[in-house]
Amino acid sequence: MKYYDQTRNCLIFIQEQATPEFWDKHWATDNFREIVTAGRDDRFILDTTGKYLNTGRILEGGCGTGAKVYALHHHGYDVYGVDFAIQTVKMTTTSVPELQILPADVMHLPFRSATFDGYWSLGVIEHFYAGYEYIADEMKRVLKNEGILFLTFPSISPLRWLKAKVGLYPVWDESFGAESFYQFALDKDQVIMEFKKRGFQILESRTYDGIKGFKDEITIIKPLFQRLYNYSGKSAVIHMARQILGKFLEPLAGHMTLLVLKKREIVDGHE
Hints:
Elements: E1 2-5, E2 10-14, H1 20-27, H2 32-37, H3 43-52, E3 57-61, H4 67-74, E4 78-83, H5 86-95, E5 100-103, E6 116-122, H6 133-142, E7 143-154, H7 158-165, E8 181-185, H8 188-197, E9 200-208, H9 210-215, H10 222-230, H11 236-253, E10 256-263
Parallel strand pairs: 3-4, 3-6, 4-5, 6-7
Antiparallel strand pairs: 1-2, 2-8, 7-10, 9-10
């Protein structure tokens, strides 16, 4: 269930609260190492990171199973991961002991200031109903000056904005409470403003995951698009069609936004 929050100009997804226990259940599997290591050549992570950092120490905050940590580790980065899902962290450190994964909260990171050259946050900030300001402060604290923040989150696409403006979502009321809150789809411009206030410079902004953003909003086509979205067969034609369609739909319906930002120290109002 989705609601439109007029005050925040965002969508609110009601599902199940994203607690540590929720994520432990979500990521539970009998073949943990296979799941973690399968994405060692994740092109999205590796190409995006390599565009800005060839080497260096990187943190992934909210790393889940550690699959992205493994990809970066496998390609030579000095990478750490943290997550607050304790059982998942235990499974990762047991199954993939070569990874540097710690149980920790992204609002209270167990690292000294200016420790990291890069910070990946993949779909994390949207899960906090009270806001992500403390998370952003910690991101800034642990990054070195000139450090790179890679930030992804669900966002208000033009299609979602249009649906909100014509009243196709029920309107959120604070009296509903946050007991079943799962995530926001955030206003990208508001997120950019929050990080600019903290001295970050925007290097890149783009939307992606167009098929998901389209199928989840246009229910009449969802069964067909869901099959295409989930396809894991060997047909090169279907994989190419999915890639082309996804790119075509991204400007209209991209589910996710990627921001790449550089930390700039502000002293007496000047960078």
